[in-house]
Specification:
Layout: E1 18-22, E2 42-45, E3 59-60, E4 71-75, E5 82-83, H1 85-99, H2 109-122, H3 131-143, H4 158-175, H5 180-197, H6 199-204, E6 207-208, H7 212-218, E7 222-226, H8 231-240, E8 244-245, E9 251-252, H9 259-268, E10 276-281, H10 284-291, E11 300-304, H11 311-318, E12 323-326, H12 328-335
Parallel strand pairs: 3-8, 4-7, 4-10, 7-9, 10-11, 11-12
Antiparallel strand pairs: 1-2, 5-6
Helix pairs in contact: 1-2, 1-3, 1-5, 2-3, 7-12
InterPro entries: HAD-like_sf
GO molecular function, one term: SNARE binding
GO cellular component, one term: lytic vacuole
Length: 336
């Protein structure tokens, strides 16, 4: 084990509150075999206050109604309804240990904990889940010079990653000789195996933001989920954690196309004609993409103040006429 210096302070015990499963030994993946969840140490994540008043048992979302005026809400999932940062970070560490086992031979428990903590800070740059794996490996290379394969890791700070991720990502993919589809597939399989072997641990690593589950249950508007998360994971969390049997045909997840295309599909559906259109996101870059599409001019755009974005992005959004900042209480009231 080499000695390494961790950037920043280790989190205080008060910020690490809940056991949520464990990390596999490096290189433990064998074809499609389950991950050895119980064979290594458990892991902590920060606890998010649970949504108040969530009923036990799944409740069906309100049935669709004929379009005679009213509202349609297209909602992002992660960062708007659900705080999945703990789960996605832990899944990324699990998957990274499978993908690059030799790197983790020099990673001890303290560094794993530090990596997960940094992922909370870096979460705003993640658009699609597989990027978490790249961030985990980059953090390892920043800390351990002997395993570096990238030209950008030396001296790189967390702030520089936040500011330059769109440029760093293709460089890392090229220098590590990785491809997107393989990483997406691995990330999904690791989650599937965590669910199969420790369902309660996987569920417990996620939290719905306070009030969002009740607002979604009670909404009288037409609601859709538009997310880069794989649909089966969003559907499972809605049912098991929020207690909502949300119609699967209303969840547009990874593989259904870019969000701008999904919004075009939604506004063209006959049953949605005459509805006032609302799109709620936590990524300013996504809202900017919508603004670039003249065909989407009818959408009211909202950037949430509680999701995975930065103060700088929120300040930038305030200067964009099409984008409205919305806080959690107003969102819950408006959705109902």
């Amino acid at each position: 084990m080499v000695a390494v210096r961790l950037l920043g302070l280790r989190p205080s015990p008060g910020r690490l509150e809940r056991w949520v499963g464990s990390l596999p030994a490096a290189g433990s993946w064998g074809g499609r075999l389950p991950l050895p969840i119980g064979s290594v140490r458990s892991y902590f994540i920060r606890s998010i206050p649970p949504a108040g008043g969530v009923e036990r048992g799944a409740r069906a979302a309100r049935p669709p109604r004929a379009a005679m005026g009213g509202d349609l809400y297209a909602l992002d999932f992660d960062g708007v309804l659900c705080d999945s940062c703990g789960e996605s970070s832990l899944s990324a560490v699990k998957a990274a240990k499978v993908r690059w086992p030799s790197l983790f031979e020099q990673v001890d428990a303290a560094m794993e904990e530090w990596i997960v903590e940094q992922m909370y800070t870096l979460r705003p740059v993640v658009e699609t889940g597989y990027e978490n794996l790249l961030l985990v490996r980059l953090l390892v290379e920043i800390q351990i010079p002997s395993v570096r394969k990238s030209s950008v890791a030396d001296g790189l700070s967390i702030q520089e990653i936040l500011e330059n991720w769109l440029k760093l990502k293709p460089t890392l993919m090229d220098e590590w000789q990785e491809d997107r589809e393989s990483l997406v597939d691995l990330f999904g399989r690791v989650r599937d195996d965590w669910i199969e072997n420790d369902f309660s641990g996987w569920i417990g690593a996620n939290r719905f933001y306070p009030g969002t589950a009740d607002a979604l249950k009670l909404s009288s508007s037409e609601t859709y989920i538009v997310t880069t998360k794989q649909s089966r994971f969003a559907e499972a969390l809605l049912k098991e954690l929020a207690g909502i049997d949300f119609p699967s045909e209303r969840i547009y997840g990874l593989g259904t196309g870019p969000k701008v295309k999904v919004l075009q599909q939604l506004q063209q559906m006959p049953q949605n004609q005459g509805l006032k259109l609302h799109f709620v996101e936590d990524r300013l870059a996504t809202l900017k993409n919508v603004i670039k599409e003249p065909a989407l001019d009818k959408w009211n755009l909202y950037l949430v103040t509680w999701g995975y974005n930065t103060q700088k992005e929120r300040e930038e959004a305030e200067a964009i006429p099409r984008v409205q900042l919305i806080d959690l209480p107003d969102f819950s009231r408006q959705l109902k």
